[in-house]
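Researcher: Next entry in the queue.
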Amino acid sequence: MPVDLATFVSALKASADLAKASKEILHEENEDLLSKVTYHIKSIEVWSGRVQTLGMLEPLATPDVTIPLLINSAPRTFLKLKSGASLSENDIIDNSNNYLILGDPGSGKTTTVKRLIRKVLTEAPVSDDDKVSFPLLVIARELKVGQTLFREIADILGLEYIFQEHSRSDTSITEFGLRNRKEHGVRSGDYYYKGRRLENVIHEFLNEARVLLFVDGIDEIDPESRPSIESELGRMARGDGIKIVVTCRSGEFGKSQFEGFNVVEIAPLTDLESKEIINRWARDPSGFVRDLDAAPYRDSSNRPLFLTQ
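Model: Structure for this entry, 309 residues:
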C-alpha cells in the first residue's frame, strides 16, 4: 500500500544497512549522513512528482498525467535474436539486475525514471527481492565537464574529499605514465576521503547501503567525459548490493559498451496506451483523436511526448 515520504524517511532512519555503511565505511555519524541523504531524497521527490514539457505554463502531477509504459526485454535491433517479452515497472525494480533503458527521443525515458523513483519512495516493496534502501539520482546533462560519477555521488552525500598527486615513488603509476600526463597537462593523482581512495569508499558505501542509483540521459554527457563515466558504471555494476538504472537514447547505444547491464527498450505506444495518454492530457480527447487521424504525421503518435504537445 502507498506510504508518504515521511514514512519512507522514518524507515531510512531505522535502516541497519545505512547505519552500518555510515559508521564502518564513511566513518560519519549516522545522523549527519541521514540529513544529507534526506535532503537529496526530498529534492528528487519533488523532481519526480511533476511533469512539465516544452510550452507548458505550469507543471502537472506525474501520477495524474503519465502511465506505466511497456518495456521490451531486448532492444528492437536484437528482437530477431531474442524473445521480445515485455517488462513492467515492477519488473525493473523487483530483482537485483542493473538496467540500461533505451528509447527514442520523447519515448518516455525520463518519465519512466520519475515513475520508478516514486515507486521506491511512495509504495511498499514489490516483493522480498525488492531490497533497495533508498534512491540516488544523477541527471547526466547537469554533470560538469570533467566531473566523475564517484565524485558526483560524494558531493550528493556531502563528503569532503581531497586530490593528491602521485609521487614518483608511487608504484601504481609508471614513469612513462607520469611523463605522458605531464606532457598533456593532466594532473596525475587521485581523490581521497579520510585517507582512502574515494572511488573505493563510494563503491563500498553504495553496496553496503543497498542504493538504487538512477543516471538519466547518459547520452547527454559531454562526449569527452562519457567514456570514463561509462567505465565507472561498469565498475559499479560489479557490486553485490547496489542496483543501477541508466537511460540512453536508442541511437546512441551502439557507441557505448555497458558491462553488467540488461539492455532493454521502451516499446512504442499501443493504441490503448495512446488513448489513455490522450484522455489524461487533451481537453477534447475525441476531437484530438479525430484531428490526429487526419494528420500526415500520424505515425509519430506512438511516443508519449508527441501526444502531450
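Model: Confidence is low (pLDDT under 50) at residues 173-185.
Researcher: Noted, moving on.
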